[in-house]
Design a protein that fits this description.
216 residues; alpha/beta; Rossmann fold; 7-stranded mixed β-sheet; two-stranded antiparallel sheet; 9 strands; 27% strand; binds S-adenosyl-L-homocysteine
Length: 216
């Protein structure tokens, strides 16, 4: 695949940014990241024209690249600051990982489906996004490299696994879609010592989390 990001793609991306603003995304760093990363690089050639529509899209192996609004909203809620250690659960296409990389965090991302892991890892490397990719069950986090300032789950969990809270630093933030298999509430948890503050941020539909703390 040839990577080309010309005026036409950039124009489409500007349009997408306007859509995100109109849907309520206000964080300028997030909007900047969304404008910087060519989303069409994460699509097959034949599907290029789908890249700048605000919709989720299949990426193979029964998985999807999240809708741009969802990526923007999750990133906004996560509020990652430069240099922070961030864990993403569910690498998928690698698009969200690219967005987080542009925000200059130290990103660890874990994917359970081997072909997706391999593809995203090679792809992110080739595009120059410095994400550390791991293969494994992220429903129990990635304790080896924790604790993290931020944890982002991009698959739907039946509940928040305790092990993930344990991998959050004090003051750390976790964002995850929690609920049923087909519809979830976006939950944000802020860890304060042994306490946690839980907020709810609207309804979303993600693919299910598999693994030990998932739906398996
Ligand atoms: N963040 C992705 C979207 C991911 S879709 C992107 O930007 O494209 C959800 C992903 O979570 C899928 O790729 C799925 O395979 C993965 N997943 C599901 N359960 C998982 C688990 N237990 N550990 C790691 N990844 C998981």
């Amino acid at each position: 695949m040839v990577f080309r990001d010309d005026y036409k793609h950039k124009g489409l991306r500007k349009g997408l940014i306007n859509t995100l603003r109109s849907k309520g995304i206000t964080n300028e760093r997030v909007l900047y990241a969304m404008e910087s990363v060519p989303r069409h690089y994460f699509f097959d050639d034949a599907l290029l024209h789908h890249a700048y529509i605000d919709k989720a899209f299949p990426i193979g192996n029964g998985q999807t690249i999240s809708q741009p609004y969802t990526v923007a909203r999750q990133t906004e809620l996560l509020d990652p600051e430069e240099g922070m250690k961030v864990l993403e659960i569910g690498t998928g296409s690698g698009y969200q990982a690219a967005i987080l990389s542009v925000l200059n965090v130290r990103l660890f991302t874990i994917e359970v489906v081997k072909p997706l892991y391999q593809k995203a890892k090679d792809h992110l490397k080739r595009l120059g996004y410095p994400a550390r990719c791991y293969l494994g069950d992220g429903s129990i986090g990635l304790p080896k490299y924790g604790p993290y300032d931020r944890i982002l789950m991009t698959a739907a969990a039946p509940k928040i696994p305790d092990s993930l809270i344990e991998q959050l630093k004090d003051g750390g933030i976790l964002v995850a879609p929690v609920g049923k298999k087909k519809s979830q509430t976006m939950v944000r948890i802020i860890r304060k010592g042994d306490e946690k503050v839980t907020e709810e941020h609207g309804f979303f539909a993600f693919v299910p989390l598999t693994g030990k703390e998932g739906w398996d």
